[in-house]
Design goal:
mainly beta; 12-stranded mixed beta sheet; 5-stranded parallel beta sheet; 21 strands; LRR_dom_sf; Putative leucine-rich repeat domain, L domain-containing protein
Length: 286
């Protein structure tokens, strides 16, 4: 390839081949790679992860497999968009990803990643707007390291979200952690989020009493298929931007809040299916 290449896009060409590492060596001016929606297989070439000027790496919907290597330009990063979704990548998510402060978009859903992600590492990404880690086999460690870079973040206390709202960038507006092995208290919550999906995990903590008061911009909230129990608090009704709320397939012990009727003008779907023992119903608000 020409050493002067700046952009490579082979999107939706039904290509089927390995991605040889030597094809990307020496492309020091390359800014964007988009090879999405093909049938490329093999590993993600290590040479791609070393490109010094790369801002966009998009390899979604291929057949890439193996362990994703570390990014080698973490000392002077430029990468803003990382999309490796819908592949067969496995092993731990490289820690170097969380040392790339310019990242705005991370989409690693629908792979076979496993292991533990540290919550404080995610919080370092102050420019992050979208985080997609669904359909993997991940755990999240909510404990903080004694790191001077994290001194501004209070440690989590108590059984829920309450200490986490102020600790995320105001840019983070979409988080999808569905279909993993997350359990215990939910701790990854952004006050400014419009989309949060924690469905199909093993969360069991009681939702904190005032969660609705801390999500003023939330539009889509998915908490279904977990192990939540206790009361559904009426602060949900204070989330005035809410359009879809799914609390189904949990073990709550309270009847439906009457205040949901007040949201009927804005709420488009409210799902309580199998939410209580001995009760099974679903409500659609039109």
């Amino acid at each position: 390839m020409s050493k002067n290449l700046i952009y490579i896009s082979l999107l939706r060409n039904y290509l089927r081949a390995n991605l040889p590492s030597n094809h990307f060596e020496g492309l020091i001016n390359l800014v964007s790679i988009n090879l999405g929606f093909n049938s490329f297989n093999g590993n993600v070439p290590s040479s791609i992860l070393k490109l010094p000027c790369l801002r966009e790496l998009k390899l979604p919907h291929n057949n890439l497999s193996g362990i994703l290597g570390e990014f080698h330009n973490a000392s002077s990063p430029l990468l803003e968009i990382l999309d490796l979704s819908n592949n067969y990548l496995q092993g731990p998510i490289p820690l170097s990803i969380f040392n790339l402060p310019t990242l705005r978009f991370i989409q690693l859903s629908f792979n076979k990643f496993n292991g533990t992600i540290k919550l404080d590492a995610i919080r370092r990404l102050s420019n992050l707007t979208i985080l997609g880690l669904s359909y993997n086999n991940l755990f999240i460690d909510v404990n903080f390291e004694d790191d001077h870079n994290m001194s501004s973040f209070p440690k989590l206390r108590g059984p829920g979200f309450e200490e986490s709202f102020s600790n995320f960038s105001s840019n983070l507006n979409s988080v999808d952690l569905s279909f993993n092995n997350l359990q215990g208290p939910i701790s990854l919550v952004s006050k400014y989020a419009t989309y949060l999906d924690y469905s199909s995990n093993k969360f069991s903590s009681i939702i904190p009493p005032d969660i609705g008061n801390h999500l003023p911009y939330i539009i889509f909230l998915f908490l279904s298929i977990n192990k939540f129990q206790g009361q559904i608090h009426d602060s949900f009704c204070n989330a005035s931007s809410l359009r879809l709320l799914d609390l189904s397939h949990n073990n709550f012990v309270r009847t439906i809040l009457k205040c949901f009727a007040a949201l009927s003008s804005s709420l488009r779907m409210l799902n309580f299916e199998v939410i209580f023992q001995m009760v099974c119903f679903k409500i659609h608000v039109h």
